[in-house]
Specification:
By secondary structure, the chain is of the alpha/beta class. Helix content is about 40%, strand content about 20%. Helix 2 packs antiparallel against helix 4, helix 2 runs antiparallel to helix 5 and helix 7 packs across helix 8. The radius of gyration is 23 Å and the shape is globular.
Length: about 475
């Protein structure tokens, strides 16, 4: 049992003012692996007060000092590699190979990238007699999701520290232990007291408290649209800035000149990643009618290369869903797809053979999907692919954009001109062409109901800054 029932406030581990705790479940075993404190409003007030007190000095640190700090954090992060991998595998159920190559690495790279961005970032600009400064926004409240305990948390924290903002973090209660490791990493790196504060607890108490707290200047949230709307409502009373990274229903447009086996592998890998619990997952696969049948057969063959099973087995590609609620939700969508007339070509309801314990689900593929079906419009957050056919590229782009979301998009094929046309035509915050390398300097965020604001690289740092114009400065 890894019980972590203290909060990290003003550089110290302190007891909660309340006595209630929250169980953390290993989703592969359906067993309690630890407890965290269900924090109180008083705990949050102490954390905010510490962040507020630390802000004047931390916001005035030099760029060079913050670069050094971020580099030290990256060094200490690397020292805790084995611990981070073990924790993410246990609390999220991520296959250990993905905990290493995806979760651990993404968390590390955000701190490294923020340090690199600071080396060229312009905090001041002279325009004639006017000086324009970008100053730290103040105390920031960070509310992070359970599906990427390091990536989503680290990108917010790295940007905040780079901008000179002090923070209060509320991690998701499903996967909180990675945040405790980050607190220990920050201690070891010498982060000044009060710059980082960690309070665990429920969204109703700590999450709502952060978004409505009068001494928090900025809220950065990643999660569902429903909760994002509530955060905006809470923040409106104090006219505080809000950045939201919300849901998605991303299209993967496959061109008629694509290598079909390569396209099938790309499509399955995308929905299988993190057991489909990815806001950017390409759950709508748009395929030309002319290659539909061949593509479906290729998909069915490819699925065998993505075994579902024990996260500790290095051969496992797909682990369990995070909890019983998520399992029930995914099962209901699969059933809904069948009820609405989509054709099931792989997977289906229930658990994979031989996996009776754990929140495991099958990689599921539907074809004969119409874009107005529930499974094509609502975010499932599980490994469920909807194959939709199209006649020409203009129709593909129209269908790709026929959604309330606009977080990500994908296009796969050979003709460069067509690839670029589709990429430009998709209304989403990030579009990937033919499986490119991850670019940690590129902005990440969404159009429409996928959110407000951007993360990653210099765009992420900008979110934690406010522009100030000093007129007559050089008169």
């Amino acid at each position: 049992m890894r019980n972590r029932t203290q909060h990290f406030i003003n550089g110290e581990w302190v007891d909660s003012t309340g006595s209630e705790t929250i169980d953390v479940i290993n989703p592969a075993k359906e067993e309690v692996i630890g407890k965290i404190s269900s924090g109180t409003e008083e705990d949050l007030d102490r954390a905010v007060a510490a962040a507020k007190a630390a802000f004047p000095s931390f916001s005035q640190t030099t760029v060079e000092e913050r670069i050094e700090l971020l580099e030290k954090i990256a060094q200490e992060y690397e020292k805790r590699k084995d611990d981070i991998i073990e924790v993410i595998t246990a609390e999220l159920g991520s296959p250990i190979s993905k905990s290493d190559k995806v979760h651990y690495q993404m968390g590390l790279q955000h701190f490294r990238q923020a340090a690199e961005e600071l080396k060229t970032f312009q905090f001041e600009e002279e325009r004639g007699e006017t000086l324009i400064r970008k100053e730290s926004i103040g105390v920031s409240g960070l509310i992070t999701p359970w599906n990427f305990p390091t990536n989503q948390t680290s990108t917010k924290l790295a940007s905040a520290f780079a901008a000179g903002s002090t923070v209060v973090l509320k991690p998701a209660s499903n996967t909180p232990f990675a945040a405790f490791l980050l607190a220990e990493i920050f201690e070891a790196a010498g982060l000044p007291k009060g710059v980082f504060n960690l309070v665990t607890g429920s969204g109703s108490t700590i999450g709502n408290g952060i978004s409505s707290h009068p001494d928090i200047d900025f809220v950065s949230f990643t999660g569902s649209g429903e909760v994002g709307q509530k955060i905006m409502e809470n923040a409106a009373s104090g006219i505080k800035k809000v950045s939201l990274e919300l849901g998605g229903k991303s299209p993967l447009v496959i061109l008629d000149d694509a290598d079909i086996k390569g396209a099938a592998k790309t499509a399955v890998a995308n929905v299988a990643m993190n057991t489909g619990q990815v806001c950017t997952a390409a759950t709508r696969t748009l395929v030309p009618k002319s290659i539909h049948d061949e593509f479906v057969e290729a998909v069915k063959e490819v699925i065998a290369a993505f075994p579902v099973g024990d996260p500790l087995d290095k051969k496992t590609a797909v682990g369990p869903l995070v909890d019983d609620n998520q399992w029930d939700t995914v099962q209901s969508y699969i059933k809904k797809g069948m009820d609405e007339g989509a054709t099931l070509v792989a997977g289906g309801t229930g658990k994979p053979d031989g996996l009776e314990k754990g929140y495991f689900t099958k990689i599921t593929v539907f074809t004969d999907v119409k874009n107005d079906m529930t499974i094509a419009q609502e975010e499932i957050f599980g490994p469920v692919m909807s194959i939709i056919t199209y006649d020409d590229i203009d129709e593909a782009i129209k269908v790709a954009n026929d959604t309330i979301y606009g977080l990500a998009g994908y296009v796969y094929g050979n003709d460069k001109e067509t690839l670029q046309k589709v990429a430009k035509g998709i209304r989403a915050g990030q579009v990937q062409v033919n499986n490119p390398r991850t670019d940690f300097s590129a902005p990440f965020g969404g159009f429409k109901q996928s959110g407000i604001g951007r993360e990653w690289g210099d765009y992420g740092i900008e979110e934690f800054l406010e522009p100030k114009a000093i007129l007559g400065y050089n008169a």
